[in-house]
C-alpha cells in the first residue's frame, strides 16, 4: 500500500483501503493468503478491525510486525516474518489472525500489553458469554463496501462528567466505546451524565460499555450503577477488548444497517469477540 505510514498514524480510513487491498490480493491477483506487515503500536487495533471488515472472507489473513526494525542489531523482524510465512504455509483457517514471537492469536481477544521485549502481545482473560449471531446480515459480508464511521473512546475516571461526554457527542460521532469501571459502572449518581447518555441514544449514537480491567467483562445488571447506565441506553460490550469494540462499531456503523439493527448486533458475537 502507498504511502507507507508509521502505525502511530493509522486511521479508520486507512483500514478501508487495507480491506480493499486484501480482497484484491486474493480475488484479483489469485493469492491463497495475505500477510500484513504492520507496526506494533496499532497492530492489534488494525487486526481487530479487519476481523470485522472481512467477515466471511475465504482466505487466511495474518498480521505480524517487529519491535525492532529489520536493520538493527537483535531485531525480531525476520523471526516474525519467517514464522508467519511458515504458519501460512502450514495451512491456516480462513479469517484474520495475529502472529508474534511464535504465537498465533485471535485479534479480537488480544492487545499490546507491553512496550518492550520480543512479545508485546497477549490474549486478554476477558469473560466469554452471550449468543452468536444466527445469520450474518448481507451488509456485513466482506464483499459489501463499508463507509467511514466516526467512533470515539471515552475512558471513565473519577471526576468525569457530562462536559466531557457532551464534547464527544457534539463532535459528530455515531458510536462511542465507554470504558467503565469494574463490571460496568460509572457516575450513575450524576443526573447530567445520565441525561447526556440519554441524549446520545436519542441522537442515534450507539454507546457500548466495556471494562477498563485487564480481565473480566461488563455485566450491566449486577450493580445499580451499571443498571442506570443500561437504563440510559448504554449497551453491554461483555468481555470485548477496546480494540474489538472499536473495530466492531466501525464495521456496524459503516454498513447499511438501521440503528436498531446495529444495537442488536453489538451484543451478539460475530467473530469470537464475545464468546
TrEMBL record:
Catalytic positions are 40
Q: Where is the L-asparaginase N-terminal domain?
A: 3-123
Please state the Enzyme Commission number of this protein: 3.5.1.1
- Decide whether keyword Zinc-finger is in the record: no
Limits of the Asparaginase/glutaminase C-terminal domain: 151-265
A single Pfam family it belongs to is Asparaginase_C
SUPFAM superfamilies according to UniProt: Glutaminase/Asparaginase (SSF53774)
Q: Which UniProt keywords apply?
A: Hydrolase
The protein, known as: asparaginase
Q: Which organism is it from?
A: Pseudomonas amygdali pv. tabaci (Pseudomonas syringae pv. tabaci)
Amino acid at each position: 500500500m502507498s504511502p507507507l505510514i508509521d502505525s502511530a498514524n493509522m486511521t479508520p480510513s486507512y483500514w478501508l483501503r487495507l480491506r480493499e487491498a486484501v480482497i484484491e490480493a486474493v480475488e484479483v491477483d489469485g493469492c491463497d493468503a495475505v500477510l500484513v506487515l504492520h507496526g506494533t503500536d496499532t497492530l492489534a487495533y488494525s487486526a481487530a478491525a479487519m476481523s470485522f471488515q472481512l467477515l466471511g472472507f475465504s482466505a487466511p489473513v495474518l498480521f505480524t510486525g517487529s519491535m525492532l526494525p529489520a536493520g538493527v542489531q537483535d531485531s525480531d523482524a525476520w523471526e516474525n516474518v519467517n514464522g508467519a510465512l511458515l504458519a501460512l504455509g502450514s495451512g491456516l483457517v480462513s479469517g484474520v489472525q495475529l502472529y508474534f514471537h511464535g504465537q498465533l492469536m485471535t485479534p479480537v481477544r488480544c492487545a499490546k500489553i507491553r512496550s518492550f521485549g520480543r512479545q508485546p502481545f497477549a490474549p486478554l482473560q476477558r469473560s466469554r458469554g452471550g449468543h452468536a449471531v444466527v445469520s450474518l446480515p448481507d451488509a456485513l459480508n466482506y464483499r459489501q463496501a463499508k463507509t467511514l464511521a466516526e467512533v470515539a473512546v471515552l475512558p471513565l475516571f473519577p471526576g468525569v462528567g457530562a462536559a466531557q461526554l457532551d464534547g464527544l457527542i457534539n463532535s459528530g460521532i455515531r458510536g462511542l466505546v465507554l470504558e467503565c469501571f469494574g463490571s460496568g459502572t460509572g457516575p450513575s449518581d450524576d443526573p447530567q451524565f445520565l441525561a447526556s447518555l440519554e441524549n446520545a441514544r436519542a441522537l442515534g449514537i450507539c454507546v457500548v460499555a466495556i471494562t477498563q480491567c485487564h480481565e473480566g467483562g461488563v455485566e450491566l445488571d449486577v450493580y445499580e450503577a451499571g443498571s442506570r447506565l443500561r437504563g440510559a441506553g448504554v449497551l453491554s460490550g461483555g468481555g470485548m477488548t477496546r480494540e474489538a469494540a472499536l473495530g466492531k462499531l466501525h464495521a456496524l456503523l459503516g454498513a447499511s444497517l438501521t440503528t436498531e439493527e446495529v444495537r442488536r448486533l453489538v451484543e451478539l458475537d460475530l467473530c469470537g469477540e464475545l464468546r
